[in-house]
Specification:
Length: about 210
């Protein structure tokens, strides 16, 4: 696995470093951590889909979905740390690093679409997120540095989705009738489209 990694200051946090060390010492390998991230996304999808279908105790499932988003991001953070800094790289590392991420994007956004009552918008966010990652990976296949830039990369998308779910919890309590999650999904779609365009433009400029 190449581990041309996304530049993240959070990797240097002592708690994150300690978690990576603990996982490595217990022989929990990066590919396993990547699969766990997808499990978080599946639980998040079911939670969002269920609330959209009228399950009881919606606040519980919305909080669970928020926890799953953070769990997914934490797995994405420590799998690379375990692989690189603890020298536990495995066969198929690139495959396990990329495919669970793309599945996770789709699960979270489609689930959010069900919750917002706009499944098509959820799918739009999912497709744009996957396309943006494809542009990054395709650029790398052409010998260019992986481009993690843009106003709505993975961390920003997950942050906005988290905000949207928090608003979905507090809006009914505050008496707000506007579908704020739907608004947030449109913002994610627009920001992701801009991110994809910027990456394509930068890739084109760098090509010989």
């Amino acid at each position: 696995m190449s581990y041309d990694r996304r530049p993240l200051k959070s990797r240097s946090l002592s708690a994150v470093q300690s978690l990576a060390k603990t996982l490595a010492e217990r022989n929990i390998y990066p590919n396993t951590i990547s699969l766990v991230s997808m499990a978080f996304a599946l639980v998040g999808f079911v939670s969002l889909w269920g609330v959209g279908r009228g399950w009881p105790f919606p606040v519980f499932f919305l909080i669970l979905a928020i926890v799953c988003i953070q769990g997914r991001l934490l797995c994405n953070l420590v799998d690379g740390l375990v692989a690189v800094e603890w020298d536990m790289k495995q066969k198929g590392g690139d495959l396990f690093n990329e495919l669970p991420d793309r599945v996770s994007d789709a699960l979270f956004f489609v689930g959010a679409g069900y919750l917002a009552g706009n499944v098509e918008l959820g799918w739009l966010c999912a497709v744009l997120a996957i396309f943006t990652a494809y542009v990054r990976a395709f650029g790398a296949s052409l010998g260019q540095p992986q481009d993690f830039g843009g106003p709505c990369a993975k961390q920003q998308r997950m942050f906005l989705l988290t905000v949207g779910l928090v608003l979905a919890i507090v809006a009914p309590i505050a008496g707000v009738t506007l579908n704020l999650l739907n608004v947030m999904l449109w913002l994610i779609a627009a920001g992701t489209a801009v991110t994809a365009w910027q990456r394509i433009r930068r890739l084109y400029v760098r090509l010989p």
